[in-house]
Automatic annotation (TrEMBL):
Pfam families: PadR. InterPro entries: Metal_resp_DNA-bind_regulator, Tscrpt_reg_PadR_N, WH-like_DNA-bd_sf, WH_DNA-bd_sf. This is PadR family transcriptional regulator. Residues 14-89 form the Transcription regulator PadR N-terminal domain. It comes from the Bacteria.
Amino acid sequence: MKPPSLGEFEELVLLTVAAQHDEAYGVSIKDALEEHLDKKINISAVHVALKRMKEKGLVESRFGGITNDRGGRRKKYYVITFMGKRALDRQYELRTSMYQKIPKITFG
């Protein structure tokens, strides 16, 4: 079975979900990405990536409790799955092995 592919943005979202472990939800993921990338991220893009990764089996979700500060709406939390961690490990190994093939180059 061919492992699911990860786009660059999906990889960043999945890394954030893994880093936030059991506390990752749409806005927390968006805020963390904005901080790390130093640019604005559309919350819809985060939700679309999470939906695609859930369909691929890379993340699972659960609903938190109802809170008054959210108008009675519940947060949807995400966690990385075993397959998701394997996908990140493959990406890391691929990028690292390719990076190590770059010869010593000096500029200026």
